[in-house]
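Lay summary

Proteins are chains of building blocks that fold into shapes. Our project writes down both the chain and a compact code for its shape. Here are two examples, one after the other.
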Amino acid sequence: MVSSVRAAAILLTVAATAYLLQLSDQVVTSRAVQAPLRPAISAQPLDAASAASNREYFLSRMQVVPVGRRNITLPILMYHYVRTPPSLKTDWLGYKLSVSPADFNAQMDLLSRHGFHPVDFNDVRAYFAGTAPLPANPVVITLDDGYADLYTSAYPILAAHGFKAVAYIVSGFVGQPRYASAAQVVQMDENGIEIASHTVDHANLARSSYASVMHELVDSKLRLERLVGHPVLDFAYPSGQFSAQVVSEVIRAGYDTAVTTMTSVDHSVADRYLWTRVRVGGGESLAEFAQGLGSPMPSTTITALDIESAEIPPPPLSRPTLLFWK
């Protein structure tokens, strides 16, 4: 009798234990289902104070032309007027130098759609110095002479696209009728338009005396530097006219590059005082415009980290340090 009671007790204990274990499993399972799923990420914080300082981190990937190329494919587009073209019959030269605002806007749209990235000569300087890559499909947009429509027509279209450009200014024409004012030149310089020199009064340097050439080169450079408050390093030969002596004087005057009206998209440091351009005149189609851009250079993808903080104001915009190749 006692044996049977003891056996029954043992049986009851085993059954109770099994029940409690089952109940415990159900509670654990229930908690596991209710617990939020968290990804298993193993990473060190970039900044121990990031939570307290309210910083945000952004990774971006960019296509760039790696530094190291001695020769680059870089279309340097040459514009003059951005205005309604005059009659082809009565002003053939004016017509060939004029691109309508609508056509200019369409050309900038094409550059944007096809992944071209406008740069200025400070960017090209940094590339050849080995301090920064160029963006994929780089292009330089240049506008000669400093006409009034540079500010009233071209500049707003460039700004709307977020594009840089280079304006070759005839310093003696600043503020004259039909030309940009000094205040307009300064405003453009502060907002993505690199100001460069185009002599004092658009003289034909190839037919000028040494004294006249140095006046055109040096005085223009100094006037523009006083106006914008920083070095002016780039130059364009008026009407594309130059000689070997003129090139030597451009170097002596302190310029770092000079562009011609000859056509090509291939450039190097060695020929930087005879860089060629692609003329954009009146009347060409978008297909003709696109054909003049040439074939893009090979590019690669890089990843960049950008840190933004709500508490720390961003640093003021500043010009890149000017690097000399000489």
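And here is the second example, written the same way.
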Amino acid sequence: MEIRTMITFQKIAELGSFSQAAITLGYSQSTVTMQIKQLELELGVRLFNRIGRKITITNEGLVFLKHASIIIRESQNALNELSHEKAPAGELRIGILESICTAHLPNILSRYHALYPQVTTIIQIGTYAELSNMFNTDQIDVLWIFDHLVESPSWISIFNYESEISIVSASSNPLASRIGLTLAELANTPFLLTESDCSYRADFLNHLSQSGIKPHVFLEIGSTDIIKKFTEADLGIALLPKYTISKELSVGKLSLLQVSDYHLTMYGQIFHHKNKWTSPSLTCFARLVQESIPSSNI
């Protein structure tokens, strides 16, 4: 049973196609077909169902995929660790939330690629649930989230930092000059909120519910940039991490509302997987992040 055959099997499972796997790996389709037939003969099970042009993985194939992925990953780790080429190169796949990407990555990646031009960076944007699944299935090398402090036996924390969750308005809004506001006073003010599966939104609404307050939710949208633009236009007030609005606060487009009975802090967190080799490209990226972001109250 050869590693290259397992790689072919893994690629077919990923793409759902013998022909696409052959193109991706640079093989002829007959070579791919022969490799899988030989693998099925060695294992004594059918790995794929072939109905017409449709390819689906069998239950036995799913079991073998789990083990094959570990073997492939460990063989790659061994080659990497024994390699004398330690300069960062190859691909670095980063899974990241949209708000973090727009707030932090432009400056960090500008420096990163100036220092390490041989690294190709691949960015995957998603929700916490989507990125977690990608991380656990080896589709990304780095996971960068913003949430409560997360612990997982398979995830190794590289760096974390805290940021306040702020209630903000347009600087022209009368609320911007008020001191000692309460959440009850804001109940009838239109709120512009992120999507429903956002953790800080869920915490905020839960806090309001426990206080018997039902907010007027005027708009829900997943884009932090759009929420900021709508807030600047005074369409409502918004709940946003402070790191996402630092520029708008500095130039006076947005103002922090002084709400006496509200405070929430969450954490930016960066992880690599314990089962993956820590490549030079990942190590150098982590170092630049730590140099670029304070560990608290940004």
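What can we say about the second shape? The mean pLDDT is 90.
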